[in-house]
Amino acid sequence: MELGIKGKKALVCASSKGLGFGCAQALAEAGVDLVMNARGSEALEASAETLRKFGVSVETVAADVTSAEGQAAVLKAAEGVDILVNNAGGPPPGLWSDWDRDDFIGAIDANMLTPITFMKNLLPGMMDKGWGRVVNITSQSVKAPIPQLGLSNAARAGLTGYVAGTARQVAGHGVTINNLLPGIHATDRANALDGPVAEKDGITIEEARARRSATIPAGRYGTSEEFGAACAFLCSQHAGFIVGQNLLLDGGAVNLSM
Fold first, then answer.
1. pLDDT tens digit string along 211-228?
2. Between 18-29 and 224-234, two packed helices, what is the crossing angle to 10 degrees?
3. What is the separation, in whole angstroms, between the first and last Cα of the chain?
4. Please, what is the angle between helix 18-29 and helix 41-51, to 10°?
5. Rounded to an integer, what distance in angstroms lies between the CA atom of residue 15 and that of residue 205?
6. Burial of 136 per CB tally in 10 Å (0-12, 13-18, 19+)
7. DSSP state of 251
8. Which residue in 53, 43, 54 sits closest to 20, CA to CA?
9. Are 215 and 149 within 8 A, CB to CB?
């Protein structure tokens, strides 16, 4: 399918690897010029070079987007973008008794306030042009909170509430905002979640993955490539009537009747 976005420009946050890279790759394949961001410059440059083979322009900004300085650097490079993909690694798992106020502030900064900052700064330009796409990578926990991910549950639910109202306020200007809700995918985040389980239960990480895969109707973890393809569709010319939605990509793990 021709996505109709060749020549557009996109900012993809946390895109040196994992789901962010999957999104950047799918957009590059569609002919979208990129601004890629991540904290580590070495991995970021290597990923950018991989995507330049698609014949698109790729600019990199190595920065921590939860800091004011990092946000300023990324926004300068992203001036005039047509597409924004917000993404950030989730906070660590734990128990309710593990977290204090600073832990919650950190989670909210990374997974709620940072994407809101990018939307507030980049939406006006999209609205002026009469076309724009925003995709926020959140989590399946927005639909079905995960007990050990209380920090993520709280921060991402806040972002979801913000998007629900904002998406409907900007849709009339040709700008859509939607959220992608990943379940478990074969990324470093999966390793971070499976590692402690393996250690606690005295099994290998491969056994921990097999155990988790057995709870997913699809019988496997997702891939960054299929996740990226879903993101690229939401960014395409065909998705202009999809507004303020929360799309699960979880292999059927969350069972919702409505």
1. 889 889 999 999 999 999
2. 50
3. 29
4. 30
5. 25
6. buried
7. T
8. 43
9. no
